[in-house]
Design brief:
heterodimer; A: alpha/beta; Pyruvate-ferredoxin Oxidoreductase, domain 3; Rossmann fold; 3 domains; 19 helices; B: alpha/beta; eight-stranded mixed β-sheet; 16% strand
């Protein structure tokens, strides 16, 4: 019998929902389980209704499911809203001394969290960690793993000690007072160490591993944590982290740093990305390698700031005035988030162009279980640089030298004595100076656009999951990858002939290969978290293959596997 | 030995009599006087007639977007602190389109010398009002007269800039001395340059300026006092002060970034395996 347990912590913003949830997820990872966790929160600092969900299995897990087995309610709203989602065999933990007038349907377990916290430590702040102890007793897990983690998290001082005491007190209280018969067990199964990591963290790690030395970002949900993580590690890894006055300054400072020779990145969301678009065009024209992380959230305008959507695919691909080459990568998995960041820096340097790493709130902020990334596989390719021998002593360095490949060897200011690097946003000569004549313009435009063809050769094809050929092909991109795969598994079990085709690298679009793959497909359903079907449009425009239908969702919540299964069955009667 | 020939660049496309010619001469003179080798100098400019200046010299050049030279200059300086970075704008580029960048760059005190060619009019787009046009200036976009101008020096004092000077394109020696002082200053140095535009600004001409400008250093003025600096910043009429208007010593942005203490970022080696320890923190 496989293990599959679902937890939810709910409460107001500011009550510590996220910390409790994170610690529970991390403790279960240390018990050897696979964990997936996501957060649902409102765009406010205090109040409202927020929750943190955790699903635990003994095999890989990438999505939430209902019903809930254990619900920790830090306020009454959580009970009122989520009680219907709790299984009849589940438990709702709450502090009956604070939350009154709760009827018992057999799942309620009132624990005086506040009183226990005060009695054991004199510190009411640790009441949430009391609840963690209660949970560990209910699931018969290893209290020491939890207590060690909590102590580590809150530090060696009094806070660490108080929290460790609090979990022990909660554990003991539960052993003595819980009279129900909750049956799910999560005792440690494995010593294998895995990471609990979200997409933002994987991207930040990918950037540091790639030698990104300059990161500039204006805070915007959902990618702010990328900048914050890199700032926290800036002293250890000698990273310059620059918070500018706006996103225009962010992208232009990144371009300046990259021109000067540092690997450089910025991260934002749709609204900030809008302000960066002119800068993207500048990077295209000056052939400056930059990486821009675009973490999507629902638009238009401010939209739903703390929720998820995939509404900026076509915008990202076409962002910028004028024609210039760029690459757009869209991580689908937590591993992609790391490895495509590494790839983004390499493509940017190799082809001297802007690379957009497009992700979304769901992948950026959800926690996944991942094996340690194998850092020995990280390759850093800085592209063609001006070598000592690359220049005759008496000839002038030409930043935009016309070459067969369209790639001119790069030099950085002060890299070599006497080498001057002239870069221009005006159309320019090989030397980098302003020109107006038609012939040079044509040569330069051809040179730049050649790179679109060559970078296209480095773009990986979409991956087929399930049988090579099937009556129905589910096509998706980015963070829907896990949900679509699980839907394919479920539909195959139900006898539907189905597979999926998933894009993690979208531009330049691999036209011929995709056309070939889709020619063999039966019905093509494109699944996207947006209202217009942007990938469907891209496929049709680029390949002339007509898609059968679109399965779209734009309520700000991520696709679940069951959403997809339902919609496929509806269309496939 | 660096000579003015080392900085000889392309043929300028400016109008005859443009103040930009004198500014170009002053820039070259300052760089030669400081014996800065061209490959150690980076000029970052925006768009407008002023933005073309770097093309008419010979050094590292990044000619970026309209209004955006400052953030590009900031990124380049952080990436390689050994570069002498000079940013160049006009009044439209620097005080209009790039106004927000300018204010925050002063506040943060990046070690950059900012030359703003202030001719009080848009030249490249042929004669519209600029943020510094004198109130009431009638132009093609302001037929009823332009509104209250920005007082760049006053705004710079308020924003916390550490070195603020005003030069005059009609006095190359004096302007070059200000540019030199700005380059040597460790922090953000604004040099607002009064620049006649013979084509589109018929009011603020060489003659008009010559009647009015006077040198602060000949009056015993002390640039260390913020309040008197404000008074000088608003002195605009029969007499217009030029010279260093405000100066204070403080740490530059770059001196405060821990990552830069080990030398320029561009010289640091990249070693992916170094992050192994970080992965363990997620376990």
């Amino acid at each position: 019998m496989s293990i599959d347990v679902n937890f939810m912590i709910g409460g107001e913003a500011g009550q510590g929902v996220q910390s409790v949830g994170f610690l529970l997820a991390k403790a279960l990872i240390r018990c050897g389980y696979y964990v997936f966790a996501d957060q649902d929160y409102e765009s406010r600092v205090r109040g409202g209704h927020n929750f943190f969900r955790i699903r635990v299995k003994d095999s890989p897990v990438y999505a939430i499911s209902v019903p809930i087995d254990i619900l920790v309610a830090l306020d009454k709203d959580t009970i009122d809203i989520h009680r219907p989602e709790v299984t009849p065999y589940g438990v709702i933990i709450y502090d009956g001394e604070k939350i009154k007038d709760v009827s018992d349907n057999g799942t309620m377990f009132s624990v005086p969290l506040n009183k226990i916290a005060k009695d054991t430590t004199g510190n009411a702040q640790v009441s949430n960690t009391v609840a963690l102890g209660v949970i560990f007793a209910l699931i018969h897990s290893d209290l020491n793993i939890l207590a060690d983690l909590v102590q580590e998290y809150f530090g060696g001082g009094k806070m660490g000690e108080d929290n460790a005491k609090a979990v022990r007190a909660g554990y003991d209280y539960s052993l003595q007072n819980y009279k129900g018969d909750f049956k799910q067990r999560l005792s440690p199964i494995d010593n294998k160490q895995r990471m609990l990591i979200n997409g933002n963290e994987a991207i930040a790690l990918g950037a540091i591993a790639s030698g990104c030395k300059f990161v500039s970002g204006y805070p915007m949900t959902p990618t702010t944590p990328i900048i914050e993580y890199m700032a926290a590690k800036s002293k250890e890894f000698d990273l310059a982290v620059f918070q500018p006055e706006d996103e225009i300054a962010a992208v232009n400072s990144v371009i300046g740093a990259a021109y000067a020779g540092a690997r450089a990145m910025t991260a934002t969301s749709g609204g900030g990305f809008c302000l960066m678009v002119e800068g993207l065009s500048l990077a295209g024209m000056t052939e400056t390698p930059i990486v821009v992380v675009l973490g999507q959230r629902p638009g238009p305008a401010i939209g739903l700031p703390t929720r998820t959507e995939q509404g900026e695919l076509e915008f990202a691909i076409h962002a910028g005035h004028g024609d210039f080459p760029k690459a757009v990568l869209a991580p689908g998995t937590i591993e992609d988030a790391f490895w495509l960041t590494v790839k983004a820096f390499n493509l940017a340097d190799k082809y001297q162009l802007p690379v957009i790493l497009i992700t979304d709130h769901h992948l950026a902020s959800s926690y996944f279980t991942a094996e340690k990334f194998d850092l020995s596989q990280v390759v850093i390719d800085r592209g063609e640089l001006l070598g000592e021998s690359g220049r005759a002593a008496d000839s002038e360095y030409k930043r935009y030298q016309l070459t067969a490949s369209g790639i001119s060897p790069r030099a950085f200011p002060m890299q070599q004595e006497g080498v001057l690097v002239v870069a221009d946003s005006d159309e320019h000569s090989e030397e980098g100076h302003i020109i107006e004549d038609a012939e040079t313009r044509n040569n330069m435009m051809r040179k730049r656009m050649k790179k679109l063809v060559s970078v296209g050769r480095d773009v990986a094809l979409p991956k087929i999951y399930g049988p090579q050929e099937a009556e129905v092909t589910l096509v998706g991109w980015g963070s829907t990858c896990y949900a679509i795969r699980e839907a394919v598994d479920s539909l195959l079990e139900q006898g539907v002939s189905v597979n999926s085709l998933h894009f993690s690298e979208l531009w330049p679009f691999p036209v011929d290969d995709v056309a070939k793959i889709l020619a063999k497909a039966g019905k093509i359903y494109v699944i996207e978290s947006n209202a217009s079907g942007q990938l469907a449009h891209l496929i049709q425009a680029e390949t002339c293959v007509k898609v059968s239908d679109r399965i779209l969702k734009y309520d700000g919540r991520p696709f679940t596997p069951s959403d997809i299964v339902q919609e496929v069955k509806k269309r496939n009667k | 030995m660096v000579t003015v020939n080392d900085y000889a660049g392309g043929k300028p496309a400016w109008c005859p009599g443009c103040g930009d010619f004198s500014i170009l001469a002053a820039v070259k003179k300052a760089l030669v006087d400081l014996q800065l080798e061209p490959y150690k100098v980076l000029m970052v400019s925006g768009i407008g007639q002023a933005g073309k200046l770097p093309h008419y010299t010979k050094c590292n050049v990044f000619n970026g977007l309209h209004g955006r030279p400052m953030p590009a200059a900031i990124g380049a300086k952080i990436a390689n602190t050994e570069l002498t970075v000079i940013a160049i704008s006009g009044d439209g580029d620097g005080y209009g389109e790039g106004g927000n960048h300018w204010i925050h760059a002063m506040r943060r005190n990046h070690d950059i010398t900012y030359l703003v060619h202030n001719n009080q009019v848009y030249g490249l787009t042929k004669g519209q009002a600029s943020p510094t046009s004198d109130q009431g200036s009638v132009t093609k976009t302001t037929p009823d007269g332009s509104l209250v101008p920005v007082y760049p020096v006053a705004l710079a004092i308020a924003a916390g800039a550490g070195f603020i000077a005003r030069g005059f394109a009609g006095d190359i020696e004096h302007l070059a001395s200000l540019i030199k002082a700005g380059i040597l200053y460790k922090g953000f140095a604004l040099i607002d340059i009064l620049q006649p535009c013979p084509t589109f600004n018929k009011k603020n001409t060489y003659a008009w300026y010559r009647e009015r400008v006077y040198k602060l250093d000949e009056t015993g003025y002390d640039p260390g006092n913020k309040l008197t600096a404000f008074e000088k910043a608003y002195e605009w009429g029969d007499r217009i002060p030029i010279g260093v208007i405000y100066r204070r010593e403080t740490d530059s942005f770059e001196e405060q970034v821990p990552a830069l203490k080990k030398g320029p970022l561009v010289k640091q080696r990249i070693e992916p395996l170094q992050i192994e320890r970080l992965l363990s923190e997620f376990m």
